[in-house]
Design a protein that fits this description.
406 residues, Four Helix Bundle (Hemerythrin (Met), subunit A), 2 domains, 52% helix, elongated, 15 helices, six-stranded mixed β-sheet, alpha+beta
């Protein structure tokens, strides 16, 4: 029994570590540690993306690159704030817990612990939910659901230890205080639907499998809804045009037709078989998810954030100080999207199936496709005159790493 308990603790520990590494991907990928992180995590994502059986797990089920004007999507995106709210509540819940331990006053019943037995796990779950919505890969959803059940196992283990240390006091506390939610709706539902399954661990495993399946199906439905609501239009030549911000179809088509009016653009597109083009401002802050070529910053942007050019040229150097200075500037303006509408940018992409053939424009957002940028065109926003034409590399800023496509 002791060996089994030790093995279970190790499993829980490494599950927590795996979730943390995957969950903080968005944070680490823009930090000075990104180069090292992706030398380990990157190959795992690429391996998953290369197999038809697992490629769906690296896809996104909610938008991160494009901003659809849809009430449901906007409402869900507001819940990203739970990442911060959960962490703040977690920190507040730690105060009475550690105060009680340091003073040796027995079972902690102050603050949140007077309402539920495990507020810190609940608040971590809330924070993890917000993080998942901010960087919504299917693999993060899978790990999030797994972590919820890991938290349950950890909570039960702690209760087992407390019952041994303070049997009478803690049993009274358990009898009068719910585990995670007042009324324990989860426990009641489990007993009603799965209480007949014995032993209990088998019932918990059945709940885990069912919950995971329903969560993935729901996420698949959200992904389909997202794709239907993207601000996009099909050009007369059947190429799909996607605007990262909602714009009238005629505006999107006007920029596209102006680009094709350039002989240099038409020549550069010859033989490329690009089946989708993204329309974005010249200094769109998520430009790197599509192409390795740098953003085109306006004089106003450079004056406001003078360190930004150096960061883009040496993004893996300079230490945490430089990183957090830029992060601070970003947080100061996160209620608005900083863009340079002096320049319109079109990034032409080729989307291939597993055999290397371009897919029809109607299928470019299907799961398991290969994407690469082929051409970048910058135009004057006012006159739509072509400013520059760049033959891109085959990759985005993070090489071959699967990145959000909408």
């Amino acid at each position: 029994m002791a060996q089994a308990g030790k093995g279970g603790k190790l499993l829980v520990f490494w599950t927590v570590i795996a979730y943390c590494l995957i969950g903080v991907e968005i944070i680490v990928m823009i930090s000075p540690f990104a180069l090292y992180f992706y030398s380990v995590y990157g190959p795992v994502l690429q391996a998953l993306a290369s197999s038809p059986l697992t490629s769906w797990s690296t896809e996104f089920f909610l938008p991160h690159l494009v901003f659809p004007d849809d009430p449901l999507i906007r409402g869900i995106s507001l819940l990203q704030v739970l990442m911060i709210v959960g962490l703040l509540l977690f920190s507040l819940a730690a105060i009475p817990l550690y105060f009680g331990r340091f003073t040796g006053k027995g079972v902690v019943k102050r603050s949140f612990y007077g309402k539920i037995r495990h507020p810190q796990y609940l608040f971590l779950a809330i924070s993890g939910f917000g993080l998942m919505l901010y960087w919504p890969r299917f693999i993060i959803l899978i790990m999030y659901i797994t972590m919820l059940f890991v938290y349950y196992v950890l909570a039960r283990n702690e209760e087992w230890r407390m019952q041994r240390e303070q049997p009478e006091a803690y049993e009274q506390y358990m009898a009068s205080t719910p585990m995670f939610f007042p009324g324990e709706p989860g426990g009641r539902l489990y007993r009603f639907l799965f209480g007949w399954i014995q032993p209990k661990w088998l019932g918990i495993a059945a709940v885990y499998c069912l919950t995971l399946t329903l969560a993935v199906l729901l996420a698949m439905g959200l992904r389909s809804h997202t794709v239907r609501t993207l601000p996009m239009v099909t050009a007369p030549d059947s190429r799909l045009l996607v605007s990262v911000f909602p714009r009238p179809d005629q505006e999107i088509l006007a920029v596209y037709q102006a680009a094709l009016g350039s002989a240099q653009v038409r020549e550069a597109l010859q033989g490329q078989e690009a089946n989708v083009a993204y329309l974005l401002p010249g200094d769109f802050f998520l430009n790197a998810l599509l192409t390795e070529e740098d953003r085109r910053f306006s004089d106003h942007m450079i004056e406001r954030f003078p360190e930004i050019l150096e960061w883009h040229q040496h993004r893996f150097s300079g230490g945490l100080g430089k990183f957090f200075r830029i992060f601070y500037n970003y947080v100061r303006t996160w209620t608005s999207v900083e863009t340079d509408y002096e320049v319109e940018r079109l990034i032409f992409m080729r989307v291939d199936d597993s055999s290397g053939h371009p897919v029809p424009s109607a299928d470019v957002f299907k799961i398991g496709l290969q994407r690469r940028p082929v051409l970048l065109v910058d135009l004057e926003a006012s006159s739509h005159a072509v400013r520059s034409v760049v033959i891109t590399s085959d990759n985005h800023k993070w090489g071959l790493m699967p990145m959000p496509t909408f």
